[in-house]
Design a protein that fits this description.
heterodimer, A: mainly alpha, globular, B: 123 residues, 5 helices, 84% helix, 0% strand
Chain lengths: 147, 123
């Protein structure tokens, strides 16, 4: 790596961009696949909710776990970009969430839309927090250290 | 074939998100994560627009799958948005966390609706 490359921010490095893209390919595929198998009861967008909340849990756990093991460099950075920014970033989605809500509102299901948005917002915060706690607990269990 | 294109488009979407978020972070240094907010709001607008085109019969269903589910699904993200809200709460900025969570959700839904409305209104 040359001096100019070392100074360039990571989002302008082709190698790191490629890692994010590679993770994103599988994240989008996983989201599409789960969307095909999870049923949407009464056209309520349960698949997107399940995908988004599980992804929030996983991202909270992964980033907390990585940051507790050391600084964002080397393998940890590769994992963060490929699995966090790439895979989980593409696995979860905001545009479909927004469009799902528009469809519910325009179908006259305002209560269903409000419930879906509230479940996404509050659930997202809760699942992210749960993921962070799980990783912190696991880290303490393995290292035997206090937080 | 459509599924392969969908997956590849998802990878490109994620890469574009990574670069756009980085560029916005470099320029706007505030506690509020403007990168993710702008990405999710613009991506929601674009998906609404695409959905409107499909409703009008001016775009095939596969366009929604590749550009919508693939590219825009990979471009926008929910997990990072939730994490950034929690980070704001952790740093004691509860008001900003609320603005980030509720504000970007409201803005994204309104944008998706506006995108759909625009494509339905086009001649």
């Amino acid at each position: 790596m040359t001096a100019t490359e070392a100074k360039r921010p990571i989002h302008l490095h082709w190698g790191f961009i490629g890692l994010v893209a590679a993770g994103g390919v599988f994240g989008a595929l996983a989201r599409y696949g789960l969307g095909q198998v999870i049923l949407a009861p009464d056209a309520w967008p349960l698949p997107t909710l399940v995908i988004n909340l599980s992804g929030a849990l996983a991202l909270g756990a992964m980033l907390e776990g990585l940051s507790r093991r050391g600084p964002d460099a080397g393998t940890r950075r590769v994992l963060r970009l490929a699995l966090g920014t790439g895979f989980l970033g593409a696995y979860t989605t905001y545009s479909t969430l927004a469009l799902d809500a528009v469809h519910l509102f325009s179908a006259g299901a305002a209560a269903g839309a409000a419930g879906y948005l509230a479940a996404s917002l509050i659930g997202g915060a809760a699942f992210t927090t749960a993921g962070i706690w799980l990783a912190a607990w696991q880290h303490r269990r393995v290292t035997g250290l206090q937080p | 074939m459509t599924v392969v294109l969908l997956a590849l488009a998802g990878g490109i979407g994620a890469a574009v998100r990574f670069v756009v978020d980085g560029l916005i972070r470099q320029r706007i240094k505030t506690a509020l994560p403007w990168g993710t907010i702008l990405i999710n709001v613009t991506g929601s607008f674009a998906l609404g627009f695409l959905a409107g085109l499909v409703m009008r019969g001016q775009a095939p269903e596969s366009v929604i799958l590749v550009l919508g589910t693939g590219f825009l699904g990979g471009y926008t993200t929910f997990s990072t948005a939730s994490l950034e809200t929690i980070r704001l709460i952790q740093s004691g900025r509860t008001g900003l966390a609320l603005i980030n969570g509720v504000g970007s959700m409201a803005a994204s839904v309104v944008s998706a609706g506006a995108g759909m409305g625009l494509s339905l209104l086009l001649p």
